[in-house]
Write a structure and sequence with these properties.
It contains twelve helices and no strands. It has about 325 residues and is mainly alpha-helical.
Length: about 325
């Protein structure tokens, strides 16, 4: 450190200079420098160097700790404290730094609590909207929560991390949020949809993505909301994505959504047995659904005891 070198040089100079001057005066009077004068000069130099090291350390060590603490705070690790050793201005500096660090930690904790409360409030509002979508059609009541739970299980089976699992939970809950504006008569229609009705229903992924776009903590869910009706073979909607161009979260929600559609009562069908639903999904493997995600679903179903003993091996 530049400060350490400067302090060291200053203390050495302050300690040795008087001895050098004294020896110079004596030598000037006597016309020579005897061995005692030389020894005194060497001793003064040595003592000055030792004193310089001690003084330098007593100043630079606390400052170095404060600098390290400041860097920790700059990285967001509030609450970092430095040891208070000296009972002088440097000790006062360390004490003040520690007080500041504790105050920042308190503010940070409170801010995190408020942000979490805001996120919970917003998510509760979105859950209410999703529940309102489910309530529009008595056949799909509870659908969003079931898709969310199964999506998270599939994500775990694929080894996804906590952030991806959180995105899957949000995406499962909100994947049909775009249906909030779809007329009830269309959602509950038992027969085939007219082309205009089908286009209206197929627009719900885009509308849903727009509803939650801009909400930072839901950013990971937006790709699944928009793309959960895309197909592995490129025949889906709204963007006709294919293969791995479809976000993984969307591929997972797609198969969870399909499983729940097969196994729950709908206007157009009675619920299938788990074995029948597995057979349907086997036919969709590699066309509608990602083969790897399909196999992960089978592992989840076996763990649940829902796939049956004759389900294809993943």
């Amino acid at each position: 450190m530049k400060l350490a070198r400067s302090l060291h040089a200053a203390v050495v100079a302050a300690s040795v200079l008087p001895a050098v001057l004294a020896v110079a005066v004596v030598a000037g009077k006597e016309g020579r420098l005897d061995r005692w004068d030389a020894a005194a000069l060497a001793l003064a130099t040595a003592l000055g160097s030792v004193l310089a090291v001690l003084v330098t350390r007593s100043v630079t060590r606390p400052l170095r700790e404060v600098v390290r603490g400041a860097l920790e705070i700059a990285r967001g690790r509030f609450g970092r404290e430095v040891p208070v050793i000296a009972r002088n201005e440097l000790g006062d500096l360390a004490y003040t730094f520690n007080h500041m660090s504790r105050e920042l930690a308190g503010y940070d904790s409170e801010n995190r609590r408020l942000i979490a409360a805001l996120e919970r409030g917003y998510l509760d509002t979105i859950r209410s909207l999703a529940a309102a979508v489910d309530a529009k059609d008595p056949y799909t009541r509870g659908h969003a929560e079931r898709v969310a739970a199964l999506s998270v299980e599939i994500g775990r089976a694929l080894g996804l991390g906590p952030e991806a699992l959180q995105a899957l939970e949000y995406a499962g809950i909100l994947h049909d949020i775009g249906k909030i504006g779809t007329p009830d008569a269309i959602l509950a229609k038992a027969g085939a949809l007219a082309p205009a009705e089908r286009d209206l229903v197929r627009d719900h992924p885009r509308i849903g993505a727009e509803i939650v776009a801009g909400v930072e903590f839901l950013a990971g869910a937006v790709p699944a909301i928009r793309s959960h009706h895309e197909r592995w073979d490129g025949g889906g909607y709204p963007d006709r994505l294919a293969g791995e161009a479809i976000p993984l979260v969307a591929r997972i929600v797609n198969i969870a959504d399909t499983w729940d559609a097969c196994t729950s009562r709908r206007p157009y069908q009675e619920p299938m047995s788990p074995e029948a639903a597995v057979a349907v999904l086997e036919e969709l493997r590699g066309t509608q659904t990602d083969p790897a995600v399909h196999d992960a679903l089978l592992r989840v179903l076996r763990a649940r005891g829902a796939a049956g003993p004759h389900a294809p091996a993943a």
